[in-house]
Amino acid sequence: MAASIPAMLRNWLDELRATGYRGLVVLHSVSPVYAGGLLARIFSDVYGDVLCLAPREAREGLRSECSRLESPGAIDRLLGTENSSVVLVVPQLLRPNLLAAAAETVRGGGVVALAVPPLGEWQPGGRDSIGAYRRYLVNRLGAARALFWADYDAGILYRQALPRERASPPPGPEGYRPRSPVHRRLLEAAATLDQARALDEIVLHLRRRGRSVFVTGDRGRGKSGLLGLVAAYLAASHMVGFVPVTAPSPGSVQGFFRVLDMALERLGVRHWAIERGGFVAGVAGPWFHFRYHTPDRVEPGAFTIIDEAAAVGPMRLRRLASRSPRLLAATTIHGYEGSGRVLAKMIEAILPEPRLVVGLEHPVRYPPGDPLEEWLYETFMLRAEAPRPPSWPPESLDAVELDRLRLADDYATLAQVYGILVQAHYRNEPDDLALILDAPHHRLYALLADGTPVAVVDASLESGDTAYEARIMPDLLAQASPRAMEARGMRVVRIAVHPELQRRGLGSKLLSYVEEQARSMGLDWLGAVFGQPDVLGFWRRNGFHVVYVSPLPSKATGEHNIAVAKPLTSLGYEVVYTAARDMLRKLLLAGHSLYRGLTAEAYAAVLEGSPELAQQPLAVLTEEQKHRLRLVLEGRLDVEAVLDVLWLLLVNHILSSGGLRILEEKDRWIAAARVLQGKTMSDIAAGLRVPIQEARERLRHLLERLSKDHAAG
Ligand SMILES: CC(=O)SCCNC(=O)CCNC(=O)[C@H](O)C(C)(C)COP(=O)(O)OP(=O)(O)OC[C@H]1O[C@@H](n2cnc3c(N)ncnc32)[C@H](O)[C@@H]1OP(=O)(O)O
Ligand SMILES: Nc1ncnc2c1ncn2[C@@H]1O[C@H](COP(=O)(O)OP(=O)(O)OP(=O)(O)O)[C@@H](O)[C@H]1O
């Protein structure tokens, strides 16, 4: 009986190849390594090439079967490669990111295969899983349109399916009539008609003095390739000299450089590649140089190219956009390494006008409508969107904890929940769904309006006993609070309200339900960690305090993580207030060193504090300082002569009142940036778009006010 599974698989592969589409193979066995070897042998016969990804202990047994054998961790490097078949040997945890990324490398007619333990023992969520992810995956396998699913040892075929129709290849660039003066040879270098049309539009836009271009599309649509074609046009037309190119990693620009190199070759433009650390880091010619820099190092040029802009983050983009006269950017809307429509809209708004937005739809490596891509996108909800909101006001509005095992069987509700939750994070990736469904220490809460989710919280239980990789808050609190590791709490990993129903109190209502749940579990604190300082207002309104601000920006997004917490027990009070008071002091005393990198707005926001954080001020002014202060107040010296005095007065004002209590927003920003962070007046004026003279006036008024308060105090 067992012998027939390989034969059936071969037949299925023949039929799959005839359709031109890609498919998924899942083969169970008590020895996933053996099953992986078997799959590799069959694929090698059928296709000639097999990429195998297996953990170290499994690799020895596979060496002779695979044309390339790597660890699952190498997937980032392999993303630019193209394969007919990929075998993933997965004895334990199956990370959705790995499966989705491996599929990205497979061309039309090819397969991705999973070699896994027998169905009864299969736990793709790993050892501590609650089993919801397994249940969900098994349900989803039932919905795949191109699947071969069997148990090799038992000789059982669970399911095989093939699409009925045959794929038609995406239309090519042949015969496309351009409107711009783009070179014919360059147009023919496009991989799809879509890419050719976009190239033409972009050239037209740039020739008409357009300032920015934003290319969007799902993964594998040829976005990076399109940037390469445009770059070749700019070089060949002598429109550029030095062009900085940035993206989250050098690996992510290899496709760009490859297509740039190919296109310059076709145009007969002399050029050479510059390699660094095994990657192409630049392509240069006699009058041009395209050069890769990491997002934290890149200096904008007259033309700046940004690939995977979503991963570079809005903060860095804003900085690049404000300093670069012209920009070419591309981003994935939905893909294995995340992103989302919200972020694409945000990026679009940052890019300067006149701006052209072009979308690419046709995949480059496989036909449109590919069933494997469809299955991955649906299974990992990569196109998740908030559902249509229910009619408002609803008859009932109930906060509940969602049963994740039941959710695994209810695709429609899970899609609604996830569709709301994705907004709380710029970048959503397949792994996120598995985490939310399956992580043992996570809890999922929702506010249901007549049964439809309108607000969702994903929370995680954390204490000193939680595994190091799975806890965040206890370690942050422990930096200042000696008893933090004794305390137990719940971290709101994400909170989101339906986009059409925000600012009606729903977020606060759900949060207070979560707080009740945490109290009933006897937890000491409720907390959250996030990157966007603009939601701080929401947390403060709900009684949370800033307990930590990361001095280092995230390498990718440039944002500084902020942690907030609210105490629920007396131990919680001790831990949270100790950390929050210490943080306020540290933010003040290290404003010019550790926290100088924060924008004035973000720094002023974290300093806002609350009266409960009031504490002992620093030393009083010396006689000499008082003397200088008098001279300034009488107009005989400039404010800059008493910045030390102003620093002391401001720090003491904040310490004794528990936060930066200056009402006018611009005054707060200028005071924070000049006095506490030590930024120059010209940087501040440029950053906040305030004339220097006005900034000086505001600083002087602040001095007058604080010295009056000081005299009165
Ligand atoms: C750990 C994390 O997930 S952080 C990321 C948070 N999530 C997001 O940013 C996703 C998009 N935003 C949302 O989903 C929601 O707006 C939330 C969750 C931030 C807030 O929920 P809402 O229901 O909109 O807020 P709610 O009406 O309860 O707000 C109460 C008060 O908080 C403050 N507040 C709420 N949102 C904000 C905000 N974005 N910025 C500043 N203050 C805010 C306001 O003072 C508000 O009162 P007001 O509307 O009378 O001025
Ligand atoms: N015009 C082209 N000629 C040859 N190959 C191309 C062309 N355009 C893209 N490719 C190749 O097709 C594959 C997918 O294209 P590309 O990387 O540009 O897609 P993308 O939309 O940027 O997606 P991703 O987010 O996966 O990078 C890459 O290997 C790329 O090198």
Automatic annotation (TrEMBL):
ATP binds at residues 195, 365. PROSITE patterns: GNAT. Catalyzes the formation of N(4)-acetylcytidine (ac(4)C) at the wobble position of tRNA(Met), by using acetyl-CoA as an acetyl donor and ATP (or GTP). GO terms for cellular component: cytoplasm. It comes from the Archaea. It comes from Pyrodictium delaneyi. GO terms for molecular function: 18S rRNA cytidine N-acetyltransferase activity; ATP binding; mRNA N-acetyltransferase activity; tRNA binding; tRNA cytidine N4-acetyltransferase activity. Belongs to the TmcA family. Acetyl-CoA binds at residues 495-497, 541. InterPro entries: Acyl_CoA_acyltransferase, GNAT_dom, P-loop_NTPase, TcmA/NAT10_helicase, TmcA/NAT10/Kre33, TmcA/NAT10_N, tRNA_acetyltr_TmcA. Gene3D superfamilies: 3.40.50.11040, 3.40.630.30, P-loop containing nucleotide triphosphate hydrolases. It is an enzyme of class 2 (transferase). It catalyses: a cytidine in tRNA + acetyl-CoA + ATP + H2O = an N(4)-acetylcytidine in tRNA + ADP + phosphate + CoA + H(+); a cytidine in RNA + acetyl-CoA + ATP + H2O = an N(4)-acetylcytidine in RNA + ADP + phosphate + CoA + H(+); cytidine(34) in elongator tRNA(Met) + acetyl-CoA + ATP + H2O = N(4)-acetylcytidine(34) in elongator tRNA(Met) + ADP + phosphate + CoA + H(+); a cytidine in mRNA + acetyl-CoA + ATP + H2O = an N(4)-acetylcytidine in mRNA + ADP + phosphate + CoA + H(+). Pfam families: Acetyltransf_1, NAT10_TcmA_helicase, TmcA_N. This is tRNA(Met) cytidine acetyltransferase TmcA. One of its GO terms (biological process) is tRNA wobble cytosine modification. It is found in: Cytoplasm. SUPFAM superfamilies: Acyl-CoA N-acyltransferases (Nat) (SSF55729), P-loop containing nucleoside triphosphate hydrolases (SSF52540). Keywords: Acyltransferase, ATP-binding, Cytoplasm, Nucleotide-binding, RNA-binding, Transferase, tRNA processing, tRNA-binding. Residues 403-569 form the N-acetyltransferase domain. The gene is tmcA. Its EC number is 2.3.1.193. PANTHER family: N-ACETYLTRANSFERASE 10 (PTHR10925), RNA CYTIDINE ACETYLTRANSFERASE (PTHR10925:SF5). The keyword Hydrolase does not apply.
